[in-house]
Amino acid sequence: MRQHKIQGQRNLHPHLDTYKMLCAGKKSYFAAAVCIITVTSMLAVSYLSLQRLSHQPKLIQEGRRCRGKIANSTITALKGNKTFIISPYFDDRESKVTRLIGIVHHEDVKQLYCWFCCQPNGRIYVSKAKIDVHSDRFGFPYGAADIVCLEPENCDPTHVSIHQSPHGNIDQLPRFEIKNRKAETFSVDFTVCISAMFGNYNNVLQFIQGMEMYKILGAQKVVIYKNNCSHLMEKVLKFYVEEGTVEIIPWPINSHLRVSSKWHFMQDGTHIGYYGQITALNDCIYRNMERSKFVVLNDADEIILPLKHPNWKTMMNSLQEQNPGTSVFLFENHIFPETVSSGMFNISSWNTVPGVNILQHVYREPDRKDVINPRKMIVDPRKVIQTSVHSVLHAYGNSANVPMDVALIYHCRKALQGDLPRESLIRDTTLWRYNSSLIMNVNKVLSQTMLQAQE
Ligand SMILES: *[C@@H]1O[C@H](CO)[C@@H](O)[C@H](O)[C@H]1NC(C)=O
Ligand SMILES: *[C@@H]1O[C@H](CO)[C@@H](O)[C@H](O)[C@H]1NC(C)=O
Ligand SMILES: *[C@@H]1O[C@H](CO)[C@@H](O)[C@H](O)[C@H]1NC(C)=O
Ligand SMILES: *[C@@H]1O[C@H](CO)[C@@H](O)[C@H](O)[C@H]1NC(C)=O
Ligand SMILES: *[C@@H]1O[C@H](CO)[C@@H](O)[C@H](O)[C@H]1NC(C)=O
């Protein structure tokens, strides 16, 4: 086992090869035994030193210019299409590392190396990466991964290249800008991450209502990983981008991998689950770590509704006070079927807009016996290391379930318990508290976007 590992790195150990050649010439058993013992101890020593040194940055060249092309797409394939880089982030929460959020084939990607070019003297350092495939892969061959490299000292690299080998020519590798290098003060309190908009998304009315609710509740920023949407949605997104609320991250994952619209693998030849949602969520956390006090992780049809507080800020102040040391707050999902209408707020000018008018849907499904309601999260991004969809995988600090009397997730969609008669549903008009500002704001957006769309 140990021998096998060392052989893979043989080129790093010329002394060892020389010694083997010497040993091979001897005939007597005694000499052979001495040889074996000596080689074994050499192997042990070099194995230990390799273990210790392998992740340390190693200076390999000097006096070079950093000339590789700077990668400018959200998803960059490395040679062979087994590794995809989203973005590197500086992370000094434990030691100074560059952490690249990426997607890898869980078996085929065994070794990656970070190449750092340090200015002003053009020293090139190579560090062996630690490849950490997230545990929530759900059977798919590709999954979210952290590719973590120790940074060279006294360098503060601005860019990094990734290579399958510790040898080669750095000029031919794309360079990625390392984000979060400078600590910033928070520019916003709440950023909502919408992990994947896909399938010609056209639920325009519900999207606008969701956006306006997020803003009413305290979001200053909504980040959307956009795979694909309708022409009308493009107009609406453009409006919000110009307003400064929305940031679009292009997410062309299906031009690299066969994506599943399911979250778990169905043995159907797909490569990755749910349009790469988990990778997008992790990227969103790191992308907003330095600029947003909280990150809200939910889908476009979900709204975290506070019941005791008028907005997220007062709610989170209170939750943090009651849960010291907690960095992850989990909110329970509740289904409000889009097929059950209250008859209220049937606003005629909205009837031509594609999508659901959530104000009409205030009946929620009761809890089911033996079914745990899934949760979504508001997190302190600086305390999160890896996130999944309904919980975090690794974080500094605790997670806390937020009780139903403090907040719930209003989730308007197809019924899960479609057979239930209306009498079995629970009338819950929490959303209506916001009706007047919501209607006013939605009308403003519609008047600006739909007019343009008709032109
Ligand atoms: C990205 O880079 C390519 C060439 O490398 C260039 O053609 C393209 O316009 C760039 N795109 C953006 C958005 O900068
Ligand atoms: C990688 O994927 C691209 C398309 O995204 C394709 O053109 C190319 O042939 C693939 N390369 C390998 C080695 O599979
Ligand atoms: C969006 O995806 C659908 C299939 O899901 C496809 O039919 C449509 O052409 C795509 N639209 C754009 C603008 O790429
Ligand atoms: C809303 O009103 C229109 C007529 O203005 C009617 O056709 C439609 O059925 C109503 N929708 C609901 C859900 O009540
Ligand atoms: C709509 O909101 C106003 C206050 O903004 C409130 O007075 C009214 O009761 C709400 N409507 C409903 C049906 O809850």
Automatic annotation (TrEMBL):
Classification via Pfam families: Glyco_transf_92 (PF01697)
InterPro entries for this protein: Glyco_transf_92
Protein's membrane topology: Single-pass membrane protein
Location of this chain's protein in the cell: Membrane
EC number: 2.4.1.-
One annotated Gene Ontology cellular component of this protein: membrane
Key word S-adenosyl-L-methionine present: no
Domain of life: Eukaryota
Keywords noted in UniProt: Glycosyltransferase, Membrane, Transferase, Transmembrane, Transmembrane helix
Membrane spanning residue stretches: 29-50
Alphabetized GO MF terms: glycosyltransferase activity
Family stated for the protein in its record: Belongs to the glycosyltransferase 92 family.
Protein name: Glycosyltransferase family 92 protein
Organism of derivation: Corvus moneduloides
